[in-house]
Design a protein that fits this description.
alpha/beta; 8-stranded mixed sheet; globular
């Protein structure tokens, strides 16, 4: 079956700026019906209107706070009420917290936003993905996953001891790939293709909000002249969303629009299954 993004239903989390916005813009330009999300409903609506005007495409903005499991459930319910299927889910939004802080449900912030929120969202719309099969789940990870050299610490996944912002971020990005490995194992036979990617080091607003480490914001500002543009950072997400199925079969993790070998801990299928089971319990899904 030939794959075309035209008329496909696409969700891009964190689609109001940076890589997410560039991804949404290009997919809308190619004819996809795109829903972008932001913690602010007003920001999402405004960005959607601008992207629609720029591309002539169909773009909708919705509120979604990935740090809140309740917000994830609310968004999923709204989306399910208004859509019969979902062709491409792009888990793009991410963060890094400078200090250990917890969400309203008590989860460590970086883990919650980067992994638990996307994990719950994907599970809540899986039936829509199946209804649109073949479909795709694309998750933005990072080469920083290699910083978690010893894999995930399942005895202290929430980093209650010895919190470090870089360690937490690396662990969450490793979790993105392990989630993708297990999702693909579970659902590839039913037509859902799961892929993770590294977007490159991109000039975005990442690290410039109050919750992020100050050094990240400073580094992003100083390095901006040599960093990739958001459009270039979005290129691999766009490729995975638009390429023919046989063109993306060769790897679970991608960079520069090509498959790339992730770290050994990222291909640990036992760890992937263990993370799935633990995440299921943490977000309150049926086991």
């Amino acid at each position: 079956m030939t794959w075309s993004i035209n008329d496909k239903q696409v969700v891009v989390t964190g689609g109001t700026s940076g890589i997410g916005r560039a991804t949404a813009t290009e997919l809308a330009r190619q004819g996809a019906h795109v829903t972008i999300t932001s913690r602010s409903e007003a920001d999402a609506a405004q960005a959607a209107a601008v992207i629609s005007s720029e591309t002539g495409g169909h773009v909708n903005g919705e509120a979604l706070d990935l740090s809140s499991l309740e917000s994830v459930r609310d968004f999923a319910a709204r989306y399910r009420d208004s859509h019969d299927g979902l062709d491409v889910l792009i888990n793009n939004a991410g963060t890094m917290s400078k200090t250990r802080r917890t969400t309203e449900e008590g989860h460590e912030w970086t883990l919650a936003v980067n992994h638990l929120g996307p994990f719950l969202l994907t599970n809540l719309v899986t039936d829509l993905l199946l209804a649109s099969s073949p479909s795709r789940v694309i998750t933005v990870s990072s080469e920083n996953h290699r910083g978690a050299k010893n894999g995930l610490d399942f005895d202290d996944l929430q980093m209650t001891k010895g919190y470090n912002s870089s360690k937490s971020y690396a662990a969450s990005k490793l979790a993105n790939i392990l989630f993708t490995v297990e999702l693909d194992r579970r659902l590839a036979s039913q037509g859902i293709t799961a892929r993770a990617l590294h977007p490159g080091v991109v000039a975005t607003n990442f690290g410039k909000n109050a919750e992020s480490p100050r050094w990240i914001g400073i580094a992003m500002t100083l390095l901006k002249p040599v960093l990739a543009t958001p459009a270039k950072g979005a290129a691999t997400s766009v490729h995975l969303a638009t390429a023919q199925t046989d063109e993306i079969e060769s790897g679970i993790y991608w960079s520069n629009q090509k498959p790339k070998q992730p770290s050994p801990p990222a291909t640990d299928t036992d760890a992937a299954a263990r993370l799935w089971d633990l995440s299921t319990r943490l977000v309150g899904l049926p086991t």
